[in-house]
Amino acid sequence: MSAEPVLVVEDLRVEHPGRGGAVEAVRDVSLSVGAGECVGIVGESGSGKTQLCLALMGLLPPSARIDGAVRFAGAPGGAARAVRGERIAMVFQDPQTALTPHLRIGSQMSEVLVHHRRSSGARAREAARAMLARVGIPDPAGCLRRYPHELSGGMRQRVLIAMSLLCGPQLLVADEPTTALDVTVQAQVLELLARLRREQRMAILLVSHDLAVVAGLAARIVVMYAGRVVEEAPAEALFHGPRHPYTAALIACAPNADGPIPARMATLPGQPPGAAERFTGCPFAARCDRSSERCRREPPPMTAFDDGRRFACHDPLPA
Ligand code: SF4
């Protein structure tokens, strides 16, 4: 990574209390995001991606135990929690539930600026209108007067993105931002994120279960499995030569961006482990066709290489 980091995460661990003891949702995750860079985080549902985002944003319940370090550039003490909503913002998967149903879009957007910037109502409303225009809402003034249910899913996601950008964040955490949208709108929202990243030099942490979603936008990709990072590499290198068998399996299941959309998506055989599961060796061993006795016995250490690549596997795929 060349640019100055806006976010550095070191050995982050998240545990929740459970009936049979603590449930580990995120384990020893380290990553960084440079200014203006888009980093993708991919993994199946339950791999710890959303828990990682919520930990970064300080949105986990008070009962969660969080260890490790999260440093955000320019924050007092480097704590991301202190700058949430201003220099770091988040866009959620479902724009319907992320907006307040009984408040007009104008009130919800103005409130962000009144709260964070102490703007007057009129100035906040004008800034909201301008931001809606910027994200491609065709009638921004009319949109301000509408309620969320009066907008399409794609428009609601644009509104959420506009709302998250009002305070000019340096980092946008986008957790499955296109999952609830149809394929055409999905492409439009991804194009919008790419444009905003270029124009505002805003870093993006783009989280998705779908490699195809992050493929066009992320310069680097972090692959998570069972709450851990199992591989990280520049996007091109990862797609053309995955070293971790789990990454290779994810790529094999991803639709080809240039080809027709398959009637039925390929899925990875087997189930990802539950958060309460404990491992003595590699967490992917039960689903890996390269697994050996050693894999089941010893956790593979993370090995980093000079080309910006790292992975945790005893028997990686050939380079
Ligand atoms: S450590 Fe072994 S089981 Fe785990 S991914 Fe590598 S080869 Fe497969």
Structure, described:
By secondary structure, this protein is α/β, with parallel strands linked by helices. The protein has a domain at 5-87 and 210-311: Rossmann fold. It has eleven helices and eleven strands. The protein has helices at 49-57, 95-98, 105-117, 121-134, 140-144, 153-165, 183-200, 211-215, 235-240, 245-253, 293-297; strands at residues 5-16, 23-34, 38-42, 65-72, 88-91, 171-175, 203-208, 220-225, 228-234, 303-304, 310-311. The strands form two sheets. The protein has an eight-stranded mixed sheet with strand order 5-6-7-3-8-9-11-10, with helices on both faces. The chain has a three-stranded antiparallel sheet with strand order 2-1-4, with helices on one face. Helix 4 packs across helix 6 (153-165). The longest helix has 18 residues, at 183-200. The protein is elongated and about 65 Å long. The two termini are 21 Å apart. 40% of the residues are buried. The structure holds iron/sulfur cluster. The site of iron/sulfur cluster (SF4) has 13 residues, from loops.
CATH topology grouping of the domain at 5-87 and 210-311: Rossmann fold
Q: Level of helix content?
A: 25-40%
Helix/sheet category:
alpha/beta
- Largest beta sheet: strand ordering: 5-6-7-3-8-9-11-10
| First-residue to last-residue Cα separation | 21 Å
CATH architectural group of the domain at 5-87 and 210-311: 3-Layer(aba) Sandwich
Strand content: 15-25%
* Overall form: elongated
Q: What is the chain-wise order of helices and strands? A: EEEHEEHHHHHEHEHEEHHHEE
Relevant CATH superfamily of the domain at 5-87 and 210-311 = P-loop containing nucleotide triphosphate hydrolases
- What is the mean pLDDT? 88
Radius of gyration: 20 Å
Q: Which residues form runs of ≥5 with pLDDT under 50?
A: 259-265
- Enumerate how many helices there are, as a single number: 11
CATH class of the domain at 5-87 and 210-311: Alpha Beta
